[in-house]
Design a protein that fits this description.
Radius of gyration: 20 Å
Strand order of the largest sheet: 8-6-9-16-10-17
Distance between the termini: 33 Å
Largest sheet: 6 strands, mixed
Mean pLDDT: 85
Oligomer: single chain
Structural class: alpha/beta
Length: 362
């Protein structure tokens, strides 16, 4: 467990934190610029505040997945690195996390939440549900942060609908996770038995290698892996957006990523949660603003969330970054979980999470 920083009036003087109750959809722009530099796999972040703090609280250890689920946090991590003692003393900025780690494996993040090595994390939505079903009341979801990021790519021009995948071979990543359940649901809703599609489950690197070496391959990948493949091989085209295909057969949104926190941390540090959410809202707004795309791409590459800035620049507009909290978050996630549950209860750990899973919802 890493040594954590404590916020207190004794150490920091008149410390200010943001006390916003949550974050709406990340559509507003921010004029902040990113100037921090990476320091290994860890960083810190800051948030300007406007509400006085009367009690100390513990800053959270933060963990994000590489790829689209982690993209929205890049500005928050950069801001944290730029917080100075002078800025804190002057009430100009505050850190909102103790540390940040970028990780490639959902299971590693889940384990860190359970053993207390992470207090707040960005994970896949089905992983969050599975985790709370295995460990009741261990975590709560704070926000939906990523909507649909899956794409069907093709070398050729034979796929214009989900029905066109019948009888074909599809290289895909994400077995046992959101991608598999989304693909199976969309095939079924379009009259295609998933068993009638030769879905070959691989890593993203293996899918890329198969597509580059084939003359007429078809695959399913999330961004930024999908973006990287199209940059590497100009013969690969985007055939279908699974976000668009989902909207054709479902009234809900394709909620693929979320921010969760340990319930113990939430109960012991409510001000820390609110400060984090306010800073995360600002980060999502900055990262999703087209005017900031170049700087945002550099930040994503800097923290190893994507392989490089060129891939990040092409991928960020397709990441469907958002920040849904409260009742809107609950509605979006419950609708999505219901679809997964109906298709395969095991996809979310065997049961629909109860109302206590959703932070800030009565």
């Amino acid at each position: 467990m890493k040594l954590r920083k404590q916020l207190s009036l004794l150490l920091c003087g008149a410390l200010m934190v943001s006390a916003l109750a949550g974050c709406g959809s990340g559509g507003s722009s921010s004029s902040a610029s990113a100037s921090g530099s990476a320091s290994g796999s860890q960083s810190s972040s800051s948030s300007a505040g406007d509400a006085s703090q009367s009690d100390s609280y513990e800053l959270p250890d933060f963990m994000v997945l590489s790829g689209p689920t982690g993209v929205g946090a890049a500005k928050l991590m950069a801001d944290n690195e730029n917080v100075t003692a002078e800025a804190v003393a002057n009430g100009e900025a505050n850190p909102v996390i103790s540390s940040a780690v970028v990780e490639a494996d959902n299971q590693v993040v889940s384990s860190a939440l359970i053993n207390g090595d992470a207090d707040i994390a960005a994970v896949a939505t089905n992983v969050a549900a599975t985790l709370v079903n295995k460990n009741p009341e261990s975590i709560q979801v704070l926000a939906v942060n990523t909507l649909g990021v899956l794409y069907i790519l093709e070398k050729g021009d034979t796929v214009t609908s989900m029905a066109d995948l019948a009888g074909k071979t599809v290289y895909a990543t994400g077995e046992g996770a959101n991608p598999q359940y989304v693909l199976n649901y969309l095939l079924t809703e379009n009259g295609v038995d998933p068993a009638g599609v030769d879905i070959q489950w691989m890593t993203a690197q293996e899918v890329t290698a198969q597509m580059v070496s084939s003359e007429d391959g078809i695959c399913m990948l999330p961004v930024p892996a999908a973006t990287a493949l199209m940059i590497q091989d100009s013969g690969v085209r985007q055939a279908l957006s699974l976000t668009d295909e989902w909207s054709k057969v479902s009234d809900g949104q394709l909620a693929m990523g979320c921010i969760v926190a340990r319930t113990d941390y939430i109960e012991e540090n409510p001000q820390g949660v609110e400060a984090f959410l306010a800073a995360y809202e600002d980060s999502i707004a900055y990262m999703s603003n087209p005017d900031n795309l170049d700087d945002a791409a550099e930040l994503v590459a800097q923290y190893g969330i994507t392989a490089n800035a060129a891939i990040a620049k092409a991928a960020i507009p397709q990441c469907n970054l958002t920040c849904l909290t409260g009742d809107e978050m609950k509605t979006v996630q419950e609708t999505y979980y219901q679809v997964l549950f109906d298709a395969d209860p095991a996809s979310i750990g065997g049961a629909l999470p109860d109302a206590s899973f959703y932070y800030g919802v009565q």
